[in-house]
Amino acid sequence: MWERIGALVRKEFIQMKRDRRTLAMMLLLPVIWLIAFGYAVNFDVNTIHCTIVDHAQNEESQKVREQMTQEEGLEIVEAEDEQTAYRRLEQGTTDVAIIFPKNFKLLAKSEDGQMRFRVDGSRLFTAQSAIRELNGILGDLQQENMQSLKETVQTAAGQSPEVAAQLQIPSHPDQAKIPPQVWKRMEESIRAKVEEAMGTATEKQLQQMGDLLPNPDYMIPRVDVLYNPDLKSVNYMIPGLVGLVLIFITTLMTALGVVREKERGTLEQLMVSPLSSFELILGKLLPYMMIAVIDFLVVLGVGIWVFEVPFTGDLVSFALAAFFFLAGSLGMGLLVSTVSQNQQQAMQLAVLTLFPQIILSGFIFPLEAMPWGIRWLSYLMPLTYFLPISRDVFLKGMSAWDHPLSFALLALFGILFLLIATIRFRKSLT
Predict the structure, then answer these.
(1) How far apart (Å, rounded) are the C-alpha atoms in residues 391 and 238?
(2) Domains with residue ranges and CATH for the chain
(3) How far is CA 290 from CA 296, 322, 332, 419, in A?
(4) HSE, side-chain direction, 13 A CA sphere, residue 14
(5) Kind of pairing, strands 116-120 and 96-100?
(6) Distance, CA of 58 to CA of 64 (rounded, Å)
(7) Helical H segments across 302-403, by residue range
(8) Spans of the chain, pLDDT less than 50
């Protein structure tokens, strides 16, 4: 029995050796996947671009700004007015606008002393990191000021030992753990304890002490998230999925369709027909382009009406960008078909071509989090340029013309891939 099994095993190895492309992919694909995942799979955002508008220009705002400047990962620039900061947000050159009001206080008692953040929600992971990082900086500084406030309140209360024993001022709450309403109840509890301990204190003393306590509702910065107010992951993912679905279906469909013709022998029959090579290529690609356009409309409709992702931009320019993107995908599929002997090889090569685009294009993992050694590969992939156009058209109300470089590169990729694939296909026909 073992001799028969051994003979069959040897036969399989001989077949693998003959099919060197499949063998190479079997050996190299795990290594490529491991390297891609190891370096590119990183949700951490290394750089957050911040624009500061400081209307206060006081000691406390200066203290916060200095702390932000020292923080690794924050790139700080200043703007003279809020309109400039908001314009940078719209253009995508900054991730968050930080506004210090004229009466800014770390331990704010009213709305006119409350800091404001305006964040670009179309960059989901960057927005989440920015809010978390900036709240952490502000919270640490507020905690430092709490001890000083406690001493001030005790002085206002007449430096009563009984009050000092009863007075417990908590540090700034972590938004992720203590909701504002809980923090407010804590503040009310403090006031109650103080009033109880100050039983014989004058009304003026109580009022003076109460006025010194900060209002927790205004200690926490007011955060305005633009373009994706609830920071929904679906609003971030669906515009990217439009591109991913299109490139996957188009590349795979074209590659398998052409190779299937080779396997059946019908491609040779077309070669001896009166059709020129150009007519043959065009006739093969046009049906796939038409199906791809239908796929584009279906995916777009499902994203808007089923997942309720807002589409606020220019449809015409977006459709034109998608056309060039689809042309490049068709070219990739045709190119894969020219180097594949059968459908199995075509499937493997198509997956090998598409997988890096899923990982390295910024579809899931932010490009800013990737090391430069891997990131440069991202700029060789069409999906990298289609994604920012798609997300900004969906969420920001922009058009493809607002991304002239990405649009031009999409057109270049489309023409280049189709040209190379056509030349290769003509050679394979002859």
Answers:
(1) 9
(2) 48-226 (3.40.1710), 232-429 (no CATH)
(3) 10, 13, 17, 19
(4) 6
(5) antiparallel
(6) 10
(7) 315-338, 343-360, 372-378, 382-391
(8) 159-179, 182-183, 186, 198-207
- Neighbour-count burial for 77-115, b at 16+ CB within 10 Å, e otherwise: eebeeeeebbebbbebebbbbbbbbeebbbbbbeeebbb
Under DSSP, the state recorded for 111 is G
How far is it, in rounded angstroms, from Cα 115 to Cα 105?
Answer: 8
Pairing outcome for strands 116-120 and 222-226: parallel
What does the pLDDT look like over 23-65, one tens digit per residue? Answer: 676 777 677 667 666 666 666 788 899 999 999 999 889 999 9
Report which DSSP code applies to 168: -
CA dihedral 181, 183, 188, 192 (to 10 degrees): 140
pTM assigned to the model: 0.77
Question: What torsion, rounded to 10 degrees, do the Cα atoms 324, 330, 334, 337 define?
Answer: 140
Which two tokens mark 238?
């669906």
Q: Which structure tokens are listed for 101? A: 């009001």
β 222-226/96-100 pair status: unpaired
